[in-house]
Amino acid sequence: MTALLARLLGRMPVGWLQLTHNYGRLASAVAGVAFANVLVFVQLGIMGSMNTATRDTYKMLNADIILSAKDANTISEGSNVPRQWMFRAMSDPGVADATPLYMGSVQWKQNGNDTKLQLLAMDPVKTGFFSPQVRHKIVSLTLPDVAMIDLKTRQIDQQVLAGIRPHSPLTTEIMGHTISFADTFTGGVGFSADGYVLTSDQTFLRLFPQRQSGAPNHILLKLAPGHDAAAVIDRLRADLPSDLRIRTIAQAADDDVVFSTTKRPTGIIFGFGVLMGVLVGIVIVYQVLSTDVADHLKEYATFKAMGYAPGFFLGIIFEEAMILALLGFVPGSLVSWGVHSLLRTATGLPINMDGTVVFLVFLGTLAACAVSGAVATRRLNAADPADLF
Amino acid sequence: MYRKPGTPDPIVVSHLNHWYGSGETRIQVIFDATLSIAPGSLTILKGPSGSGKTTLLTLIGCLRDVMDGSLRLLGTELNGASEPAQVALRRRIGFIFQAHNLHASLTAQQNVRMGLEVHGTHGNRDRYDDAAAHALRMVGLDHRLHYLPGNLSGGQKQRVAVARALVGNPEIVMADEPTAALDQESGRVVVEILKALGRERGTTTLMVTHDDRIMGLADRVLTMEDGRIVSDTAPR
User: Fold this and answer.
1) Hey, is B183 helix, strand or coil?
2) ipTM score
3) Which residues share a beta bridge with A215?
4) B63 to chain A: which residues are within 8 Å by CB?
5) In chain A, what are the domain boundaries?
6) A366 touching B, CB under 8 A?
7) pLDDT tens digits, A139-194
8) Nearest residue in chain B measured CA to CA from A303
9) Which pLDDT tens digit goes with each residue over A283-309?
10) Where do the ABC transporter domain residues begin and end (chain B) (predicted)?
11) B227: nearest Cα among B12, B24, B19, B11
């Protein structure tokens, strides 16, 4: 290893030799870097789970364009959209099909549990607007008071959910109505509810007598083959009233994520958590490296007295920083992966470490180590060698 | 002592003053020092503790910025010299420290090698290891090449430090009480090596010591008291 580094660096790998000289000190430095990594990963995981959950809602729909009210900042909020605009939109040659989407949340009380369910309701005849994973099961929703429930619904006995079949439905009472859960699908709700329920528009209107079929939450559109979404959206914006938000589904999901992370208290708190994690991580890494510089100050002063230039010391510190970043990152990411699994099991939230985040955190670790090292050598560069002995 | 005619003195000090501290606590430690050291000579700087000899040595060795007066080292004025100029000069000096100052994580050979790598490593990788081993052989440590300083005796460590200072063929060797931490036998060995190698290569040597056993080896002995050079004698 020493010979390899010597060849790589074109000089004596002093940093490597220093680090491996004292394994106890190396272990504590690596533990420090690893801890900083865990801190950042866990905060990013929690924040990422919120964004994933937000996007997952949109993935349950299969449409190109969504028409929403101006104040619909997230998919489950905002005013209703008059259904007349759906018919108006369908007159555009670029629009192949359309359906109203009704949404609402209900409290499901059973066996002492109070579960909040997020209802998504569409016309079950228009199966194409449902995501491919549920499309073939939609036919069961054409019966009145029949619904499909999310397998990941929190607080519900998993065996009960797994046993639900069209021929053995789970019949229960929700808000004074008898509802039969005749099938299941895999959803996974974030912070706003405990689980999803899919129903027909008719069942939805029975559960919510105050809602009207002419006033859905959103209107979903599908493009005709060969038509460009941007062009159709431009035409619709010109044709429909200006108090409508007309966006692609992807754009709506992006806007929702931005709103949730920057305007919602939960999003801001999670963002702040990430910021705190990064700052505390940088402080830890800086402490590790500045302690190391302080420990070797006398040796560096000797090198300085021998005629080594400031760049040489920066090189040693960078060498140490890179080694510590690498050695700390491996256990740090493994422990984070474990912590994520624990949190995922405990909360049912989609807490994951995707490749991009892992790569970015690794780059951040390298950068934090390098900058901390550069700052830590300032004292050495400013002093006369004779003052450091 | 042989002296090539026309060779300028490598060390020329005139009216050098130096202070420690600042404001009210500022005290002067070097008063109007003026001296010139001939090439190839062995000069000893002696005097009681706190007389300023180590300060003067570190000023001449480019380890401290000159405040007042003139100090010409190898033809370069150190008063106001830039950092790169000082770095370049330090490479032409071999400095031996009182407490050997070896790097604890490097072996004897690696420590000596650092005295060569300071001149750059391009294409010299293998030659440097041989040169470092050769330098350690000259100080009688060829059987300790791969020992860490922690596993060497005090005298052996100081000999490694001597090898490190001399391996780059410096024009000037400066030593700050190289025998202070050593017993009589080890101290004598270190100075004899220094003297022999110095004579062999014609290097100028400046040594701070109060070790009376060594005085007889010097071409010239300067005595300092309270920051002033009070006597300048040639024992031989």
Assistant:
1) coil
2) 0.89
3) none
4) 305, 384-386
5) 2-54+265-388, 71-242
6) no
7) 888 999 999 999 888 888 888 888 898 888 999 998 888 999 999 998 877 778 88
8) B114
9) 888 888 888 888 888 888 899 999 998
10) 13-236
11) B19
